[in-house]
Write a structure and sequence with these properties.
With about 220 residues, the protein is α/β, with parallel strands linked by helices. Helices cover about 40% and strands about 15% of the residues. The chain contains ten helices and seven strands. Strands 5-4-1-6-7 form a five-stranded parallel β-sheet, with helices on both faces. Strands 2-3 form a two-stranded antiparallel ribbon. The longest helix has 14 residues. It is globular and about 50 Å long.
Amino acid sequence: MPLPAAALFDFTGTLFHIEPAGSAIAAVLGEQFVPLADEVVRRGGYNGVGVAHDLPADLADAWHERDLSRDAHRRAYSGLAERAGLTAAQAAALYDYSISPQAWSPFADTVSTLRDLAAAGVPTALVSNIGWDPRPVLDRYGVLDAFDSLVLSDERGLLKPDPAIFDLACAELFVQPDACVMVGDNAANDGAAVQLGMRFELVPADPSDRTGSELRAAVGLAA
């Protein structure tokens, strides 16, 4: 497979994965609070969780706007963690940890894929529905400068699956969509890039389902 004219990547579940809620709670609050982890996740109170069960009316607006506003993102996840049994202070501490570089790890081939694309002269963009700044995470793993464009929903006012967000990324990379690839873990959101004629490659979000070469294969790099 030849290299694309440009490569677009999702963030969560594609390039990076977050620490499980249980171990994050243990690190931030102590082992005695780990039994609350399942309920925190079920309620949607941990960063990266995409489904909130029993969503209360007073947090509905924040939840639906969480990837368009950093304030809404914090209010949604912290508020739902409180509904799961944490105090306001505990929920705030867990939220702060969940957006810190310490909570995030790259998949096995993330760094090599981005570095090798940069070395090959293939421009890249991060296209993410996100309500917090991932730059410190990218910087920690030495890949912030590997991106030519960061198209973040909360900064651009656009959300996947709106094709406009992919179109914007391509415009900033000075490439035509039909010459690019979009790599992501969500067929509905990330896969909407095909509406512009872009090739889409789906990768597993769970680290245990990865072999360590999915990203490289998706963009045409040797394993």
